[in-house]
Amino acid sequence: MKELLEGFLSRLETETTPKEGEYLGDDGLLYCGKCHTPVQCRKELFGKMRILPCTCRCRQEEMRRQKEADEARERMNTIHRLKATGIQERHLLDWRFDVAEETDTIRWAKHYVENWRKVRDKNLGLLLWGDVGTGKSFAAACIANVLLEQAVPVLMTNFSRILNQMGAMYTEERYQYIASFNHYSLLIIDDLGIERSTEYAKEQVYAVIGERYKANLPLIITTNLTIRELRNPATVADARIYSRVLEMCTPVQVSGGDRRQAVSRQKQELVKDVLFSGKGGEVSQ
């Protein structure tokens, strides 16, 4: 073993003949002509003083910058992959805090991501309920996009999509599919209550929520159902689902005007301005 190490060190030892960009110092070691720090060092190994290569300061800085660039590139690739799988409806990528009106809902949604580490550790889920168009899905998507930019695995989907994807699966495949949601640090289920109201559908909805419960991972759910409907379900199957949801997620009412109608009015005004300005045209209301 010693002979092998001796042979390795002998091959590693370097000559003191300067290469381009180097010079020989007074101590007999080679130095970098740019940063004037050594590219060789003396080390005593196995009873012999040896001249071995080392890294000069400017090369160390170059390696550091390269490592940071590689890490930044890998982080961006990771974020791109997470967004590609985590946001299944492309328009949701545009729902971000920087384009949001500063409402109470948006303020507490910002607090949620600002305190994400505590939210995750304490398994703090949310149930966003309210009328159609009040901004529940928008707030949830804002949360998802910020966390994805921080390379946090998030999945935002809905039970209709989940049930459609499970349709052609065998039992074992369904188990694996449901378990795969636990790869995401945060699961957001949009529009609870719009999925098919069949015994099979309700069983799978309960399985998804139950798996999240067992994994002790946070869940955000949005719904147009009222808190009264959630606390007084019409069927036993609904009671199982809503009871578990209310146990995992703190209800937060999202109120306000119908955001969709406001957007529609803005688009109508834009159409008037772009297409009919000065031409006497009208847009039907």
Automatic annotation (TrEMBL):
One annotated GO molecular function: ATP binding
Domain IstB-like ATP-binding: 72-262
Keywords recorded for this protein, A-Z: ATP-binding, Nucleotide-binding
Any one GO biological process: DNA replication
InterPro entries: IstB_ATP-bd, P-loop_NTPase
Family matches, as PANTHER family: ATP-BINDING PROTEIN RV3427C IN INSERTION SEQUENCE-RELATED (PTHR30050:SF4), CHROMOSOMAL REPLICATION INITIATOR PROTEIN DNAA (PTHR30050)
NCBIfam families, sorted: PRK08116.1
Protein's recorded name: ATP-binding protein
